[in-house]
Specification:
The chain has 229 residues and is an alpha+beta fold. It is built from 4 helices and 9 strands, in the order H-H-E-E-E-E-E-H-H-E-E-E-E. The strands form 3 sheets. Strands 6, 7, 8 and 9 form a 4-stranded antiparallel beta sheet that branches. A hairpin with a 4-residue loop joins strand 8 and strand 9. The chain is globular, with a radius of gyration of 17 Å.
């Protein structure tokens, strides 16, 4: 069994590679008007392979634009052409040397002020949620979900989906079963976030922020490590 300092270091290394992958996506203008979502997803997949030799992803690769950004993870909206005045989010779970990264960011094409406002609110709410986690040693998943919902409502948005994050670790150790609510930051999970997993190791978490502007017909997404980094 891998010792905890090594596990932590490898999860942080996986995150660093995901950060670099997304930086290269932006540098190469892969998210552009006229591109189909699925084609962009495939090009990001190929770039991950080129940069890091990554051939596996621990969950489906997501590139969503326009009204598709309203959809939670579980949905599979039809492939769509990205428009000129658009909000787009990318959610990838690449596996780097058997350790999972889970990373999501939102991009805005065009000058729509509300889309820019929503994009900018995502990391702010994430940071406030992370600070809340850090300030409450006995925090449960349900309590963190409620706080994320409160922060979202106070900022004038709607929270998408039924959870706000999940466990992450070595692949396929944390492959999530939909019915296993204790794997999620969700209303039905009253277990503490700082606990040991089934193998007696520290749980590590991803925090997800999915904001929705229902009237505007779009949303945005941001996810990153909650308890590390």
């Amino acid at each position: 069994m891998t010792d905890e300092p090594t596990r932590t270091a490898r999860l942080l290394e996986a995150r660093a590679k995901a950060v670099e992958l997304f930086a290269q996506v932006e540098k190469h203008n892969m998210i552009a008007p006229g591109e189909r979502e699925r084609a962009v997803s495939n090009r990001i997949r190929d770039l991950a392979n080129e940069l890091f030799g990554t051939t596996r992803h621990w969950h489906k690769r997501i590139v969503r634009s326009g009204p598709n950004t309203l959809m939670p993870y579980e949905e599979n909206p039809p492939d769509r052409v990205i428009g000129t005045d658009e909000i787009v989010f990318v959610d990838f779970g690449p596996i780097f040397e058997e350790y999972e990264a889970d990373f999501g960011r939102t991009f805005v094409l065009g000058d729509d002020p509300v889309k820019h406002q929503l994009r900018d609110a995502l990391p702010e709410i994430f940071t406030m949620g992370k600070h809340f986690f850090e300030s409450e040693p006995e925090l449960t998943a349900r309590q963190l979900h409620a706080e994320v919902g409160r922060l979202t409502a106070n900022a004038g948005w709607e929270l998408g989906g039924w959870h706000a994050g999940h466990l992450v670790g070595e692949f396929p150790h944390e492959r999530i079963q939909e019915a296993l609510v204790k794997s999620y930051i969700a209303p039905g999970n009253d277990t503490p976030l700082r606990r040991l997993d089934r193998s007696g190791r520290a749980c590590h978490w991803i925090l997800e922020i999915h904001l929705i502007d229902r009237a505007g017909g779009f949303g945005g997404f941001y996810e990153d490590l909650l308890d590390l980094g």
